[in-house]
Amino acid sequence: MKTAIIFASKHGTSSKVAHQLAVLIGNDKTEIFNLKESVHLDLSNFESIILGGSIHAGGIQKSVRNFCTLHTVDLVQKPLGLFICCMDEQRAMSEFETAYPELLRNHAKSRKVMGGEFLFDRLNFIEKFLVKKISGITSTVSKIDEDKVREMAVEMTN
To answer: Angle CA(3)–CA(152)–CA(40) in degrees, nearest 5?
Structure first.
């Protein structure tokens, strides 16, 4: 049986993390699903699930929240990994707690904040303005925590 890696990504960071996880776990042992393209998934075909998304303006994508609501029963019956991509290190844990329901957070075998990225070439004008104003960052920055990605892959395969 395989691991389903399910994600939503606004600018590509969660997608990047999902693909890194697939490589570390084994591409032959994983299937990746982007919630922008795959809304109705049959989770019975998978032994374990990894679910992730990114934080924008204090919240995770609506598609991730909806997926959690629709599939809660399935998600608590399998080993579960949850991750977020978030640039605000000080608020990361509180962002994680608001991103996922308590039931899923408590059930999850692995819970990780994977860091994040500001990809200026993918931000629109307003997003660039807000990033510059709030964080002072004026160009592309990647702070994906490769150690956390590896830790999740190990925790989900043990």
So the answer is: 35
User: What phi and psi, each to the nearest 5 degrees, are found at residue 8?
Assistant: -130, 140
Where residue 143 falls among pLDDT bands split at 50, 70, 90? confident
SS3 77: coil
- How many whole angstroms separate alpha carbon 74 and alpha carbon 59? 23
Let me know: does 152 contact 83? Beta carbons within 8 Å: yes
CA-based angle 45:43:117, to the nearest 5?
115
Dig out the tokens for 28 from the structure. 């032959």
Q: How far apart are CA 129 and CA 35, in angstroms?
A: 28
Residue ranges of domains in the chain, CATH in brackets: 2-115+145-157 (3.40.50.360)
- Model pTM? 0.86
